Amino acid sequence: MTSVGNQDANFSVCSQLAREAARKGCKMLFLPECFSFIVSCLQTVVVAEKLDGPIMSRFRQLAGEVGIWLSLGGFQEVGPDKEHIYNTHVVLSSDGTLVASYRKVHLFDVEVHNGPVLMESRSTAPGNQLAVCDSPAGRLGLTVCYDLRFPEVYQRLAFDHGAQVLLVPSAFTKLTGEAHWELLLRARAVETQCYVIAAAQAGKHNEKRESYGHSIIVDPWGNIIARLDNSLATGIAVADIDFQYMASVRERMPIGDHRKQGRKCLGWDAR
């Protein structure tokens, strides 16, 4: 999707996508970072709400009406002070219950070469805990966007917390997306032998900001099994999660066991 600075307009798009997913028989829909709002850092702070506020209540109602689980990839949650929010990934069940939340740990403070200067820490405080939850799509490991560049997060989610599906909702810049988006997502899948679901913002949100798009789903062998054509600003890519296939990949190449052995040889902890 291409979020804008109008929460009502963004909710309308999310509602459309949820209903389309339900019509296609999906058990769960994964929405990208900034699904409800995207403009400037200062405006982001102004619109921040608590997780029991009116915006999240609308999405809880939507989940219940449509009968589908929702991964809400990056919500502007009220932060620790007046100047900062939390960038929070929320999972809702099909009856609207808040099942899990994760506050983004790694903040994007980067001057993109020949691109924008983005200083997320000016308006966002980092979280300090990992999050997993069970869902109809399997055991989910929650992350957000820039976390993708830190593989130890995904290894901890998979090997320590039993995640089967790693979520990477994002609003990647066009330049960094063209260089590294698919490469990093496939690497995280291969390293952990998990499915990776990466819902992405796409296109121009305003005069100053553009996102790369290319939402994809990757299987535990690193194959892309669903991809959203980037010429479509709004839409969904659909795939099945096959736990037998995941088990066969892990049986043929038991990375988890070998990881434990390697850490023991190196004198590291059992993780």
Automatic annotation (TrEMBL):
Domain of life: Eukaryota
Pfam families assigned: CN_hydrolase
Domain CN hydrolase per the UniProt entry, residue ranges: 1-243
Source organism (scientific name): Coccomyxa subellipsoidea (strain C-169)
Keyword Hydrolase: yes
InterPro entries the UniProt entry points to: C-N_Hydrolase (IPR003010), C-N_Hydrolase_sf (IPR036526), Nit1/2_C-N_Hydrolase (IPR045254)
Keyword annotations: Hydrolase
GO molecular function: hydrolase activity, acting on carbon-nitrogen (but not peptide) bonds, in linear amides
Designated name of the protein: Carbon-nitrogen hydrolase
PROSITE patterns: CN_HYDROLASE
